[in-house]
Amino acid sequence: MAESLAPRCGEREGPAQREGEGQAGIEARREARRYPHRPIVGVLAVVLRGERALVVRRANPPMAGRWGFPGGVLELGETVAEGAMRELREETGVVAEPITPLTVIDSIDHDDEGRVRFHYTLVAVHARWRSGEGIAADDADEVAWLSRADIVEGGLATAPALLPLLELAVKAGEGN
Description:
By secondary structure, this protein is of the alpha+beta class. It has helices at 15-18, 23-32, 80-92, 148-153, 162-174; strands at residues 40-49, 52-58, 67-68, 71-73, 95-110, 116-131, 140-146. The protein has a single domain, classed as Nucleoside Triphosphate Pyrophosphohydrolase.
């Protein structure tokens, strides 16, 4: 999942506070997400055009170097749909309209000693593409519109939920 970096419990933050924060502040917030005291709520934007999905290669841990859906941490005061669409715009420049939540995913990473290093509860939001082709920004190294076949045949390193979410979104789209 892309890192949009949220505060620890009890801290308040919004987009205006993050502007002009600088790399040191970003790194401090990123580090604060390791070994959390409780799960962190994250959002994913699942956007399709035909059978191709907008995916990003993550620049930061967890899942650095893996392909997944654009997303990040839900900010205080945002709805799940607002957060997913904000993350989509920040990471790719793509604009979409939220349709419905698809599912909730647990993403828990343990270190070699068995301690929880990262714990995200991710809400995947299905969205309808409106504009933009996608440009890697924020926490994305690369952006692409890929089909399931492109991902599998290309042998891409992916986040564990990428293919199941893609299949779920394609099925949900068939009902529209």
